[in-house]
Design a protein that fits this description.
It is built from four helices and ten strands; from the N terminus they run E-E-H-E-H-E-E-H-E-H-E-E-E-E. It has about 170 residues and is an alpha/beta fold. Helix 2 links the parallel strand 3 and strand 4. The two termini are about 15 Å apart.
Length: about 170
């Protein structure tokens, strides 16, 4: 199974403001930066409860009929994801990957600060695609948290866009 991260971050390394606001991201409808192509390669999204709650504010549901797994140890109202194929799981990242593999998932897209950090700490991520947005927001939810050891990366490619976005892809060394 392949576990990938596709995320936007401010130049100072934050993926959202402290209140989870994303108002610093470029407005929708801008230049394409590979998201649609990336989404075509994944069959399952794994997001945390806080990310799920933020995504519910988007109209329409942004993931179409793609399978979405919300991680939470507390009950989550999945009926709010109108038009979505959403389920809830709990457990460690390794347990989640095992359960999803057993259910036929082959390519995971992991999103949300706590979730990304947990999967990285567990050594389960193979691919990172990070798009740096040309803004400093000063504080917020960091893309990376503490790690028990170094995570060695191999640079695959870097692309820059006329809007100022800079996207780099890395593979995680095993």
């Amino acid at each position: 199974m392949t576990v990938s991260i596709f995320v936007g971050a401010s130049v100072d390394g934050f993926i959202a403001r402290p209140n989870h606001d994303l108002d610093w991201l470029p407005e929708g409808g801008g230049e394409p930066h590979g998201y649609e192509e990336f989404m075509a390669t994944v069959d399952t999204l794994v997001i945390g409860r806080l990310t799920y709650e933020k995504v519910l504010s988007f109209d329409p549901w942004p993931y179409g009929s793609k399978r979405v797994v919300v991680l939470s140890s507390k009950p989550v109202d999945l009926s709010k994801a109108v038009g979505g194929v959403v389920e809830q799981m709990s457990g460690t990242p390794a347990e989640i990957v095992t359960q999803l593999a057993e259910s036929g998932a082959k390519s995971l897209y992991v999103d949300g600060g706590i979730t990304i950090q947990g999967f990285l700490r567990a050594g389960l991520v193979q691919r990172l695609i990070i798009t740096r947005v040309p803004v400093l927001i000063g504080s917020g939810i960091p893309l990376f948290g503490t790690l028990p050891h170094d995570v060695r990366l191999v640079h695959v490619s870097t692309r820059h866009y006329s809007s100022g976005l800079v996207q780099s892809e890395y593979h995680v060394l095993a």
